[in-house]
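Annex B, item 7. Sequence and structure tokens for protein A, then protein B.
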Amino acid sequence: MRSGDVIADRYRLEDTVGAGGMGVVWRATDLELRRVVAVKRTSTGDGEQLRREARIGAGLQHPNVISVFDVVAEDDERWLVMEYLPARSLRDILRADGPLTPAGAAHVGVQVATALSAMHAKGMVHRDITPANILVTEDGTAKLADLGIAIWSEVTVTGSAQSPGTPGYLTPEVTRGGAATPAADMYALGVTLSAAVEGAAGNGALTGVLSQLTAETPSRRLSAEAAAGRLRKVARGTAVARRKATRLGLLAAGVVVVLVAGLVFVPRLLPGSEGSQGDNAGDGTGGTVAAEPPGTPAPRREVPGAGNAKLLYGLSGGANLAQASELVAETPVGMLTTTFHQTSDLKTLNTWRETVVPDAYRKGYALHLIVPSWLDDDNPEIPLDTPYGRACGRGEPFTDQFLDDMRSLARIFAGRPDGPPLYVTVFHEVNAFACGDDGYYENSIATRAYYRALKDRYLEIREVFHAGAPNGRVGMGWQGWQSDLDDNPELGGGPSMFDHFADVLAVSDFNSVLCKEPEGNVEDVRLTVAALGEYAPVMVGAYANKDVPPDVVDKDVRALLTDSSIAALVADGLFAWNFNRESVIIEAGRPTYEFVMDVVRRTGREP
């Protein structure tokens, strides 16, 4: 095959990005969806192996596992179509940059452990957890690669699938001829993380976790879920430092590597990065190299964070009407917010696709979509059947129509990958969705089942926007009062509720807090930004509404938007602040309005 050839009338080969004893991988363009993918052909011509790997990949959808999209045929040969991921393998990072800090290794380990937890829950065993098979993106997201020798009870194991794994990472029981079990994956993860911190000082709490992962007896090793919880605590010990340093200090900017099914591929420099050559260097078109995987959620897009005490300010009211406001016209407001309520809204929003949306992006505005914001009468709490048992909560997110609406919104609001971003706050007030007491995760079996299913749905929606909108960044929307509730670790109430959502918060592109309390929002903002900032950058997705009295709005903004307060919030992870309609500020009085305009002029930044 040559560059320019088209596989299965859909995938145009661009260039080889790696080759090895197992086969060759090409960077390719999906001509139908207009995205970059990776396609693999085995050197042995073993089409059954590719089909088997594809079945396992299709049976596992997780943000920390490389996406497998399809298997196609061309000239009697099978090709595996996969996510093209800008990343380096952990092995290459360690060779080039030296050992990770304990917190950095734990951050990677949490993500791998959550992926393994999902695999093990489905009866799968990876069987080859090594630094070579863990990819780490530029923003620090880790993904498992190489499902080539994984086993699954629903897939027949033949040929090379009988291979037990990589020597040095095999458990004592496997080397003696025993079967690979989930405990074998956890042992290999422990060896991998031990290698990642070898020679680094101050392993402290990480050492205890690693010793439990590599216990001689399989039954004494930590499960994937337990390991994720232990590693998350280690990683949190330096969470703020990680944000300020960004990218975990792991990756050199611009390097792209694809490693799938045991193949190590040659690093390439993204166009526009230091050392790149060619006509496109520095023109911004290289943004399309970044993967846009629809099979599972994409790695977290980078969102500007702490460091300069500047904020991206936004205004609700719709991408069309907000531009006519005095605040947008007279200050550097850089984000226009639209709220989606119901399917009938699409009739108007569809007319924006060719005019309002591209015009806003052309002018340099980021767009922010809050979806959805239902009234209780429109979306009542009802009994539901979920994979986790009988649940109770709002039913709309689980309907086919809802997912179709999300696909439509992704198409309408899509922009260029190298243009202004689209921020999507999903599940407006998620902590009030389940039946029973608001802000509790485990107050009943039905509540727990509901929120577990809702997390799965959130990842599906994140996948929809990443696939349909190359500039999309997705976050979950929380009412700010969650942090102000009494902490209840036993029932997952108050700040403890965030712990139960840690797996999805950590892979979100950003997290969103909605603050509309009539009694005041100062502490809600500060506490929730600090809590959510442990996982990803934070946006105040909607500040105030008609129920917040004008005097409270005045007190809130004068307390929260001083230079010192903004600096503290940015240090905790805040990157954006969205005012919920201009009328909220106007009704607070002209002095308040002018105060806000002065703040935005001094501290506002471009997207």
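Protein B:
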Amino acid sequence: MATSVKMDEETKSRLEQLQAEIRLKTGKQVTQQEILERLVNDAAESKDEVIDSFRDSRVPVDDNAHKAFHEGTVASGPETTKDDISSW
């Protein structure tokens, strides 16, 4: 059962360009529905990447880099409090 999907003109245009490029490079005529099905299936296989793409933008740091950063930190004496700062 087909259902319509609303998209803006730019997205529709990009979908049409992709459809044309697939036809030029493969010789196969595919429908926009087939393209969207393939994209959704591919995205479902890499859910974490898709979910992360909707998070607030920030530079990803892999676990090794995160550990290396924290291994480089050293204790420099007692923790400074707000009162310590305001007493100057």
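Comment on protein B: Residues 82 and 88 are 11 Å apart (CA to CA).
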